[in-house]
Amino acid sequence: MSGVTGAAGLGAGAAGAAGTGVLAAVGDVLALTGRHLRHLRRTPEKLIAVALTPVAMVVILGYLFASVVTIKNSGGVEYHDYVMAGVFAQIGLTCIGITALGVASDLGKGLIDRFRSLPMARSSVLVGHTTADLVPVAISMVAVGAVGLLVGWRTDAGPLSIAGGFALLLAFAYAMLWLGALLGMVLRNMEAINGISALALVILSFMSNSFMPLSGLPGWLRTVVEWNPVSTVSEACRVLWGNAPASSGGSLPMQHPVLVSVITVGALIAVLIPVALRTFRTAAVR
């Protein structure tokens, strides 16, 4: 009986230690998230950098081009309604470079080395960084939505469906934040990060259905563009918000954009987080 009691005591102690470890890790994440948010308050230009390009795209595409661009088989969907989902998705792409530069800067200054010397969970450094970077993403989405409403954007869906679209956008942006963190640890060079993140923004934005339907593309290119995560996320938001054209094509991503987007974004997060954390173990000591 004493052996059983001792084993039970050890099991309870291990469970208690595990619970304490989880709580400590959560506390570390909250502390580092708060640090990054305080830094954001002192450097509002980071928020401006995230919001400026999407807001400009809403004004240029949703207002200036709306009178000259017509969507075939639109089912009554106006161009400024069609383009908004693509502009929201572009916010996540913009954050790749912002997060990459922040992580590379912390590595260059030795800040992450100092964090590693503290008794904290190593994963909390990147988790806190990416969690804090979601705040400017959310604020940018509010700003873009407000400008979109001013230029005539409207949704034709219920509150839950609208919220589901924004939840999907935030999940996609979170995946892109982890991609940015990985990019920052691998490259470290500010010029290289700026160049590659800008290239990714241009290619992933314009090789998608963010701003134009895919009906005029050649067959092979259309297949590539349809499977672009930006295309599926944009189309999923259009479906959830009631802004989708009457006919989007017969491919799987365009027939079931919400399902494909959820699976794709979930897979990106499931892959990028472990890879980034594994890279982090050696990046700070190189």
UniProtKB/TrEMBL annotation:
Keywords: Antibiotic resistance, Cell membrane, Membrane, Transmembrane, Transmembrane helix, Transport
Compartment(s) of residence: Cell membrane; Membrane
Ranges for domain ABC transmembrane type-2: 45-283
Taxonomy, superkingdom: Bacteria
Membrane topology value: Multi-pass membrane protein
Annotated TM spans: 6-26, 47-71, 83-104, 125-150, 162-187, 199-221, 258-277
Family: Belongs to the ABC-2 integral membrane protein family.
Protein name: Transport permease protein
Native organism: Streptomyces lonegramiae
